[in-house]
Amino acid sequence: MLHSTNIICRSSSSSDLGNINEKFYNLQTEVYRLQSHCNINLMNEALEGLQKAMSPKARGPLFGQHCTTVSLLFDHIESALSTLGGHVTGLDQIDFDGTTSPARSKVNWKQILKDPSHTFFKYLEDVVSILKKAVYYIFLKDAFDLAYERVPLGIQGYRHRRDICFSHAVTTLATSFATKLRQCAVDPSYSLQLAQLGFLVYWESLLSTHGDESGMLEDFFVAVQDLNNVKLKITCGDGQHGPIITGARYKVTVEMPLEDTLFRLLPIELQKGQEISVCAVMFSQGINEQQSIADRIGDNSLQDAINIENFRTLKQYLSQLSSHFALAGEESKKKVALALTLAEELQNHVHNTRKRKNIEIFATMQALSRLLNAARVTSCKSAKDRTAMAVTLEQVQILIKDFNMAPSAFQQALDSMRRYVY
């Protein structure tokens, strides 16, 4: 983030004008990301603990109330960022070639951005100073707890909790990859997609943002994010043995054995052991009565932030897909065009944060994931009631769309599945 700001401040030639708005957008994104990290419970607890641990004399005026101070500083940062953005926007309307007026020289470009940038940096440095002290406090407290054989609740406890969630996520990822690989190994286009773009897996969360499920949703989100660091590798095997997992924390490689007959159908680079990247995306929408409470008197900002962040990840994958099929045949180009259309619909749904229980996010993402041959995972709190209702609903919709079942049989088929299958 500091590097991005320095780039804006150092810009001094007309050739940089084309990138300055993009750099400022990236700067805004980094500020919002830092702000979201400051809102997690662990950081708030650290700020409160630091407040109690420091003597009144050591605190000084800046550290009077840490949580309140950080919130107030972010208000100042947003104001300074808005002012800086106004100056950046104004640069597009000024001619800096030095031919129209001496006042509009290249030197004055730096002068225009100097004061708002200085104000922005000042508040940012204050925030970073406080957060560094809070992180040091967490490490010291953990060291003290471990020395006296207490259960650590800070960094060590957080890491243990993250490891548990990640182990479950990796297991599910390996199962999804094994299933999808055996379904689509005979499809050359899917094998090429794996080799060149990676393994796309869509996680559908039905957790609410109220009560305990809000904490579960946080864990779910972090676990899915960690999967983007996992690498997959296909090996030739007899089909009798399971996957082999190697590596260290958050840098895991899953080796998946595949029967010889299917292994020979893979692209030569995968047969030689090329690693397959993972693109894991997650979209969440609570649908039960707890979500109704959250919609009325609670806070849905976590759910909205998760959906927006994962849409960015999906958009990057679609950008790579567009480049990959740029010179492909007409059928592939139609597929890409349809995928981009569905992505636009999904973007509208994701950013429509005022609508309650916006399940159109699921319907659009389900269609998009089937189009892109993505693996699918659906889960709620216990992965039975809400999950079963979601899965059976989608199954009936697929019967109508892809298998020509009469729409009039929708309710009968749905009732039958929910009565006898689940």
Structural class: alpha/beta
- Cα-atom radius of gyration: 26 Å
Report the portion of residues in β strands.
5-15%
Instruction: Kindly state the percentage of residues in helix.
Output: 55-70%
Helix-strand pattern: HHHHHHHHEHEEEHHEHHHHEHH
Task: Explain what you see.
- Helices cover 65% and strands 10% of the residues.
- The protein has 422 residues and is an alpha/beta fold.
- Strands 3-4-2-5-1-6 form a six-stranded mixed sheet, sandwiched between helices.
- Helix 5 runs antiparallel to helix 6.
- The longest helix is centred in the N-terminal third of the chain and has 42 residues, at 106-147.
- The protein is globular and about 65 Å long.
Describe the structure concisely for a colleague:
With 422 residues, this protein is α/β, with parallel strands linked by helices.
Which key phrases capture this entry?
alpha/beta; single chain; disordered N terminus; 65% helix; 17 helices; 422 residues; 6 strands; six-stranded mixed sheet
Question: What is the strand and helix layout of this fold?
Answer:
Blueprint: H1 2-10, H2 17-38, H3 41-53, H4 56-59, H5 66-91, H6 106-147, H7 155-184, H8 188-196, E1 199-205, H9 212-226, E2 231-237, E3 244-248, E4 251-259, H10 260-263, H11 268-271, E5 276-284, H12 289-297, H13 301-324, H14 330-351, H15 360-371, E6 375-379, H16 385-402, H17 410-421
Parallel strand pairs: 1-5, 1-6, 2-4
Antiparallel strand pairs: 2-5, 3-4
Helix pairs in contact: 1-2, 1-6, 2-5, 3-6, 5-6, 7-9, 13-14, 14-15, 16-17
